[in-house]
Design goal:
This protein is α+β, with helices and mostly antiparallel strands. It is 39% helix and 20% strand. It binds adenosine-5'-diphosphate and magnesium ion.
């Protein structure tokens, strides 16, 4: 296993409910280090670009509206096998199917408003980090 970086978003349902600290505690407890973090209001154009791969899906409009409905916290997480590890810690996309102890099982209220995003591959992690961070804003 190698040290990797992955891209994370604490979504608007997390910021609205003051859960960013609670979610970060789960992330850190799982051995992932938060090496970059910024609270932003995503623009519609940024959200559409970020979720471009889903643009033909029926939930795309709803997803973009949700992602710009309030502030988000964008993060870079670092650790052993960070991409797969964070997907494990997040839990299944639909919180109803997520394992006990995962972020989505613990905090999420629906498949759409599911609290966190995490990259699904090394290639996407790199692209997603580059969309929101400059190298100088990541301190490992
Ligand atoms: P993940 O975030 O687990 O990688 P996907 O990449 O499949 O999941 O979907 C991206 C995001 O789109 C999800 O996190 C969720 O916010 C939203 N989404 C996925 N499926 C649905 C759905 N059936 N209805 C509404 N929103 C959805
Ligand atoms: Mg995905």
């Amino acid at each position: 296993m190698a040290t990797e970086r992955t891209f994370s978003i604490l979504k608007p349902d997390a910021t609205k409910r003051n859960l960013t600290g609670a979610v970060n505690a789960v992330i850190e407890k799982a051995g992932l280090r938060i090496v970059g973090q910024r609270r932003i209001q995503m623009s519609r154009a940024q959200a559409e670009k970020f979720y471009e791969v889903h643009k033909e899906r029926p939930f795309f409009g709803e997803l973009v509206d949700f992602m710009i409905s309030g502030p988000v916290v964008v993060q870079v997480l670092e650790g052993e096998n960070a991409i797969a590890r964070y997907r494990e810690v997040m839990g299944a996309t639909n919180p109803a199917n997520a394992d006990e102890g995962t972020i989505r099982k613990t905090f999420s209220e629906s498949v759409g408003e599911n609290t966190v995003h995490g990259s699904d591959s090394a290639e996407n992690a790199k692209l997603e980090i580059a969309q929101f961070f400059q190298d100088s804003d990541i301190v490992g």
